[in-house]
Amino acid sequence: MSTGTSLKLSGLTTSRVGGPARRWFEAETEEELIVAVRAADEAGEPLLVIGGGSNLVISDEGFDGAVVHIATRGRELREERDGTAVLHAQAGEPWDALVASTLSEGWAGLEALSGIPGLAGATPVQNVGAYGADVSQSITEVRVWDRAERQVQVFSNADLEFGYRTSLLKRTTTDGIPRYVVLSVGFRLHRGPLGAAVRYAELARVLGVEPGQPAPAEDIRRAVLELRAGKGMVLDARDPDTWSTGSFFTNPIVDAAAAAALPAEAPRWPAADGQVKLSAAWLIDRAGFGKGFGLPGTEGEQLAGGRASLSTRHTLAVTNRGTATARDLLAVAGAVADGVEDAFGIRLHPEPLLIGCSLPARS
Ligand SMILES: Cc1cc2nc3c(=O)[nH]c(=O)nc-3n(C[C@H](O)[C@H](O)[C@H](O)COP(=O)(O)OP(=O)(O)OC[C@H]3O[C@@H](n4cnc5c(N)ncnc54)[C@H](O)[C@@H]3O)c2cc1C
C-alpha cells in the first residue's frame, strides 16, 4: 500500500482539477482497501474513495480527510452450465480494458459500454450507461465493505435498486462519501459473436441494423468507440475536449405537463411512472450554449477567462482547456444550468459528484 500526505488530487481526476488531500492511500489489494477504509473510519476522518477520477469534481481547496485511491486488480471468469459466464472483477480493474478482454475471449454483453473511462468498481455506483445499455443489464452481484456495519456484504442486482444513472450505492453516498465501498462486481456474459440487441438509433444506423436487432459484438465495440471519439468521449491525453467528467448533466426526467410545454421538436423518451426523459444536450444547445461556449472569443469567455468551456464537439461536456480550476469548470456549468432554466423552466442536475464544491448560487 502506498501512502502519503498533501497529494494534489488534480493528478487523479480526468478533469484535472482538485486541491490537496490531507492524507492518501493507494490500495492494491482488497485487504489493503478494507484496512485503509477502517483506519479512516476509526480515526473519525472524512473519507473520499477515488477510482479513475472520471466522475468527480473536487474543490480547489482539496479534501480535508483521507483519500483512498483504488488500485486493486484481478478478474475471474466462471462458465455456467447454461452457456453463459459470470465475470468477477476487482473494483480497481480498468473498465475499458476489461470490456475489451471479454470480447477478445469470445464473451459478449458489455460491448455497448466500450470506451467509458474509470474503473469497474465505480460502474454500479451511477449505473454507468451509454448507447442504449447500462451495467444494470449485466450485473449479477456487487461485493461491498459496509462502513456502517463494518462488514463485507453481497448485494444482488435487485438489492441495488438501479435507476437512470443511480443506484442504492449512489443514494447512500453523502457529499461524495459512500456508505458502501465496492470491492468487486460480477457481470453476466453471453457467448459471442453476437452482441446484445442494439437499442440506440444512431448506433443501429452506423451498424446498418434495425433498432432492436443484434449485431456482432466486436462491430458494436468498434462503432461505439468511433462514435465516442467523434464526440470527445474517449480519454485522450493530447485532446482537451476529453479533459472532463464526460456528460456534466444528466438528462432531466420531468412530468408529462412539463414535457408538453416544450417545443414539439424537443427530443423525449418515455421514463418510469409516466414521466418523460429529455435530452440535456438539446436543451443546452437551444438555450444558446453552443459547442466551445467559454472559449476565447465566445460569449462565455468572461466566465473563466477561456480556461474552461463546453467541449468543441459536445455541448454536454464541461472541459478544462489546460489551466482551469474547479471554480472555472463550475462557473461555466452554472451559467449553462441557469440559462437552460431561464429558457425552459427545467433545472439540469450535475452527473459527476461535486466534492466540497457546488454550482455557483444564482445571482
Ligand atoms: C470522457 C468521458 C466520458 C464518459 N462517458 C460516460 C458514459 O458514456 N456513461 C457514463 O455513465 N459515464 C461516463 N463518464 C463518467 C465516468 O467515466 C463513469 O461514471 C465511471 O464509471 C466513473 O468511474 P471512476 O472509476 O472514474 O469513478 P470516480 O470518478 O473515481 O468516482 C465516481 C464516484 O464513485 C465513487 N466510487 C468510485 N469507486 C468506488 C468504489 N470502489 N466503491 C464505492 N464508491 C466508489 C466515488 O467515491 C465517486 O463518488 C465519462 C467520463 C469521461 C471523462
Could you characterize the architecture of this molecule?
The protein is an alpha+beta fold and 363 residues long. The chain has three domains: 69 residues, 2-Layer Sandwich (Uridine Diphospho-n-acetylenolpyruvylglucosamine Reductase, domain 2), CATH 3.30.43; 156 residues, Uridine Diphospho-n-acetylenolpyruvylglucosamine Reductase, domain 3, CATH 3.30.465; 116 residues, UDP-N-acetylenolpyruvoylglucosamine reductase, C-terminal domain (Uridine Diphospho-n-acetylenolpyruvylglucosamine Reductase, domain 1). Helix content is 23%, strand content 25%. It is built from nine helices and 21 strands. The longest helix has 19 residues. The structure holds flavin-adenine dinucleotide. The site of flavin-adenine dinucleotide has 35 residues, from strand 3, strand 9 and strand 15.
Please report the first level of CATH classification, the CATH class of the largest domain: Alpha Beta
> End-to-end distance, in Å?
46 Å
Order of helices and strands: EEHEEEEEHEEEEEHEEEHHEHEEHHEEHE
The CATH topology of the largest domain comes to Uridine Diphospho-n-acetylenolpyruvylglucosamine Reductase, domain 3
Beta-strand portion reads 25-35%
What is the overall number of helices?
Answer: 9
Distinct bound molecules? flavin-adenine dinucleotide
Provide the structure class: alpha+beta
Helix content: 10-25%
General shape: globular
The whole-angstrom Rg is: 20 Å
Can you tell me the residue ranges where pLDDT is under 50 for at least 5 consecutive residues?
none
Average pLDDT score: 96
Number of strands: 21
Overall CATH architecture of the largest domain: 2-Layer Sandwich
What's the assembly state of these chains? single chain
Largest sheet: 6 strands, antiparallel
Number of domains: 3
